[in-house]
TrEMBL record:
One of its GO terms (molecular function) is RNA polymerase binding. Residues 8-77 form the Transcription elongation factor GreA/GreB N-terminal domain. The gene is greA. This is Transcription elongation factor GreA. It comes from Muricomes intestini. The keyword Transmembrane does not apply.
Length: 161
């Protein structure tokens, strides 16, 4: 059996996943069980849309619990005190100047599990993340993206956690 891939997480990311798992197990399971019980009490289950919807919700909750447990089991937490802030790595906040589009941007470099472009969190496995990892302030970085070649100048590296 192949060893599961380690999932890099910041401490904040780990805490968020643990909180979500706890909520699913303690709150959501009870809520959906009550919905199923209520739907069963309505009688004939063969044409009971509420029952079907509740069972679907239960299946989704259990699938997410299983997914979260797998992620947490294989989590490797980035310890802030061990991160070298002289160069870009997971756990850093990076300010760059986009030479191509003449604008300043800020990213948090996180593991793929935490990535969320709307929150400015980019994965270390994304094209931009891969290109930035290991770079120092002042360096130019060329990134090949779906939109084409982009060049960044690294302005600043700091703590993000």
């Amino acid at each position: 059996m192949a060893e599961a891939k380690k999932r890099l997480l910041t401490y904040a990311g780990l805490k968020a996943l643990e909180d979500e798992l706890e909520n699913l197990k303690v709150v959501k399971r009870k809520e959906v069980a009550a919905k199923i019980k209520e739907a069963r009490e309505q009688g004939d289950l063969s044409e009971n849309a509420e029952y079907d919807a509740a069972k679907d919700e239960q299946r989704d909750i259990e699938a997410r619990i299983e997914e979260l447990e797998g992620i947490l089991k294989n989590a490797e937490v980035v310890v802030e005190d061990e991160v070298d802030f002289d160069k870009i790595n997971v756990g850093c906040k990076v300010k760059v100047f986009d030479v191509t589009y003449d604008e300043e941007m800020e990213f948090k470099i996180v593991g793929s599990t935490e990535a969320n472009s709307l929150e400015g969190k980019i994965s270390n496995e994304s094209p931009v993340g891969q290109a930035l990892i290991g770079k120092k302030a002042g360096e130019l970085v060329d990134v090949e993206t779906q939109a084409g070649q982009i060049q960044y100048k690294v302005l600043e590296i700091s703590r993000s956690m």
